[in-house]
Every structure is written in structure tokens, then in C-alpha cells.
């Protein structure tokens, strides 16, 4: 079994190497698909707004966490307009540095910039209303994803939500050698969520994305 540890180390270090070479731009964050950013954000906003607000069972809007935040594309256009404070976590320091200027005047409402891979990141207990995890679960091994989701569960407030938005494959696990990630099918993602002790309270497919890219699904978890 010695190889697995070695392979796991490479899996993470190769991804870090990949992102280190990517330009700190929206197009870089989206692998050349910068044009889909608005469709993505609008879909996410419609999804998220179903849960936010005052009253029984509603999710608050004081603090959100953007996981795999990059330069803060989602923070800027989705989270900061809806939440009082947003924290960012990303493995690439250069992206977080760029976020400070990219977010502009609103950067003053960022609580923390954490430079860490999610496999090592421990979010503060009870801090977040929403933890947003987009286009990054493929960079975690199954066991690290389950462990991270368990840590997220401790980090959300009583009516808080964990949201995963990501590519799903048609069947099985499809490796991407280029950025050292994997794409899992929906059944696998659901089973990992269940293993983490979370339940899916709502699930949708993102519409109007280019036909040639993977389907993207959004899952709200508690």
C-alpha cells in the first residue's frame, strides 16, 4: 500500500504546480471559459436565494466561506452581494493576493484570506451561514473530501448550508491528468456526502452551459 501515499502526495503537488502557472484572471479560473461566468453566477444566485432570509429554517447572511476561491470571482459576484462578511480559502497565494485588488472597494468586507489546500483546512466551528465549494472537490481524494465535509458540518451555524457546485461525469471517476483532478459521477458524489453524515436538501443541474463541457450540478447539504 506504500504507493498510495506517494500517489496522493503527487496528486496534490501536481495540482498546486498546475495552478501556479495559471494566470490570475477570471478566464484562468474558468479554464478559458470566462464567458460562462455570468450564467454560472446567475444560476448560483437563484439557487442560493431559495434558502436565505429571515424566519423558520432560513439560512442567515452574516458570513460565508468561498472554498477554492481563486481570485475571488464567486466572492465578488455571488457572496459579497449577499453576505456581510466572506472568507476565502485557496491553495495558491498569488490568487489570494490578486483577490485583494480584484474585489476592489468591497475587499474590506473580507474576513480572512486562508492559503491552504482543503485537505488541510479546518474552518472555524460555528462561523459560517454558507460554505460554498465550487469546482474544487475534484482536487480532493474521496477520504479527504469526506473529512473536509465533516469539518464543514462543524463550521456551519444551526441553519447553515454547505453547497457543492461541480462537474459530474456520466459514469464513474474520470481523471484529468492536466490539472491533477478527478470528475466523479453524481451517484459517487451523493454517496460521499452520505458518508460524511450530510443530507442533500436540494439539488439542481446548471442550465445553459456549453454542450462540450461536463454537466454541472449544485447540491445543498446540511
From TrEMBL:
One of its GO terms (biological process) is methylation. GO terms for molecular function: N-terminal protein N-methyltransferase activity. S-adenosyl-L-methionine binds at residues 68, 73, 90-92, 118-119, 134. It is an enzyme of class 2 (transferase). The keyword Cell cycle does not apply. The keyword S-adenosyl-L-methionine applies. It catalyses: N-terminal L-alanyl-L-prolyl-L-lysyl-[protein] + 3 S-adenosyl-L-methionine = N-terminal N,N,N-trimethyl-L-alanyl-L-prolyl-L-lysyl-[protein] + 3 S-adenosyl-L-homocysteine + 3 H(+); N-terminal L-seryl-L-prolyl-L-lysyl-[protein] + 3 S-adenosyl-L-methionine = N-terminal N,N,N-trimethyl-L-seryl-L-prolyl-L-lysyl-[protein] + 3 S-adenosyl-L-homocysteine + 3 H(+); N-terminal L-prolyl-L-prolyl-L-lysyl-[protein] + 2 S-adenosyl-L-methionine = N-terminal N,N-dimethyl-L-prolyl-L-prolyl-L-lysyl-[protein] + 2 S-adenosyl-L-homocysteine + 2 H(+). Its main location: nucleus. GO terms for cellular component: cytoplasm; nucleus. It is found in: Nucleus. Its EC number is 2.1.1.244. Keywords: Methyltransferase, Nucleus, S-adenosyl-L-methionine, Transferase. Belongs to the methyltransferase superfamily. NTM1 family. This is protein N-terminal methyltransferase. It comes from Cynoglossus semilaevis.
Amino acid at each position: 500500500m506504500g504507493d498510495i501515499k506517494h500517489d496522493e502526495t503527487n496528486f496534490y503537488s501536481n495540482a498546486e504546480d498546475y495552478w501556479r502557472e495559471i494566470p490570475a484572471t477570471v478566464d484562468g479560473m474558468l479554464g478559458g471559459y470566462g464567458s460562462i461566468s455570468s450564467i454560472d453566477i446567475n444560476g448560483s444566485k437563484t439557487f442560493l436565494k431559495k434558502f436565505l432570509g429571515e424566519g423558520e429554517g432560513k439560512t442567515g447572511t452574516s458570513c460565508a466561506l468561498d472554498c477554492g476561491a481563486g481570485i475571488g470571482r464567486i466572492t465578488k459576484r455571488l457572496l459579497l452581494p449577499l453576505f456581510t462578511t466572506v472568507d476565502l480559502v485557496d491553495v495558491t497565494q498569488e490568487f489570494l493576493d490578486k483577490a485583494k485588488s480584484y474585489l476592489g472597494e468591497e475587499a474590506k468586507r473580507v474576513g480572512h484570506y486562508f492559503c491552504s489546500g482543503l485537505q488541510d483546512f479546518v474552518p472555524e466551528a460555528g462561523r459560517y451561514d454558507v460554505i460554498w465549494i465550487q469546482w474544487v472537490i475534484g482536487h480532493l481524494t474521496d477520504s479527504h473530501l469526506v473529512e473536509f465535509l465533516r469539518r464543514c458540518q462543524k463550521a456551519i451555524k444551526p441553519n447553515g448550508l454547505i453547497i457543492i457546485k461541480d462537474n459530474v461525469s456520466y459514469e464513474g471517476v474520470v481523471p484529468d491528468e492536466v490539472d491533477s483532478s478527478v470528475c466523479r459521477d453524481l451517484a459517487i458524489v451523493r454517496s460521499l456526502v452520505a458518508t460524511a453524515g450530510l443530507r442533500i436538501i436540494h439539488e439542481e443541474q446548471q442550465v445553459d452551459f456549453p454542450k462540450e463541457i461536463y454537466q454541472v450540478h449544485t447540491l445543498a447539504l446540511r
